[in-house]
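Design job #97: recover the sequence.
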């Protein structure tokens, strides 16, 4: 978990979860609220000409949607109403927003940006590829680890979260990605920052895939 998620998004989600609990909302309803904010922002990126008011609106909606995305899990733990269906819904919404957000950037590039060349239209597709593969591979790695019993009792409690790792993960944190949309009022700046962050995501994808493959290779094989 990055520094942003640990100290900004998770605490914000805690307050939203408490409010949702008082209102009697279910975790799935909170997930849908998160989706409503997020997809409203995505639609605005695709349909409206870039401007500073649009930048602020999109950023605010994405950040609020992200905070509600944290709140649904916290509410599920608070109420004990979580389950496979809720976890499935949460992951489907997360995957859909990644695909849709980069698609909206592609549409905006095509409709509103004065691009140096058509090759720039490939940028959102490459960014989308890196983001979706990272998300899906990470989920699959987690599930495969859960499905393997090493048979070794833990010798010590888990180490506390590393602050250095939390800082290193900032470039691939969704909350940091939302900050890019604050530059929508300056299209050339947005395009440049988006490209840099896309390149960083591609590098992290390679590193994550290598790490996860090593970790899974070290697990015991399933019994025949």
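Job complete. Output follows.
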């Amino acid at each position: 978990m990055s520094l942003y998620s640990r100290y900004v998004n998770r605490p914000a989600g805690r307050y939203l979860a408490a409010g949702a609990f008082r209102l009697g909302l279910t975790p799935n309803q909170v997930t849908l609220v998160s989706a409503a904010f997020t997809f409203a922002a995505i639609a605005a990126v695709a349909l409206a000409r870039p401007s500073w008011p649009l930048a602020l609106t999109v950023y605010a909606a994405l950040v609020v949607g992200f905070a509600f995305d944290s709140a649904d899990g916290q509410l599920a733990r608070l109420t004990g109403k979580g389950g496979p269906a809720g976890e499935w819904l949460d992951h489907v919404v997360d995957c859909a927003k990644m695909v849709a957000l980069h698609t909206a950037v592609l549409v905006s590039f095509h409709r509103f940006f004065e691009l140096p060349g058509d090759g720039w239209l490939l940028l959102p597709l490459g960014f989308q590829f890196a983001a979706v593969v990272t998300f899906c591979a990470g989920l699959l790695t987690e599930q495969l680890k859960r499905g393997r019993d090493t048979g070794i009792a833990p010798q010590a409690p888990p180490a506390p979260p590393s602050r250095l790792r939390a800082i290193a993960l900032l470039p691939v944190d969704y909350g940091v990605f939302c900050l890019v949309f604050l530059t929508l009022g300056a299209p050339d700046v947005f395009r440049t920052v988006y490209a840099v962050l896309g390149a960083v995501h591609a590098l992290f994808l390679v590193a994550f895939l290598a790490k996860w493959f090593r970790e899974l290779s070290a697990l015991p094989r399933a019994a025949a």
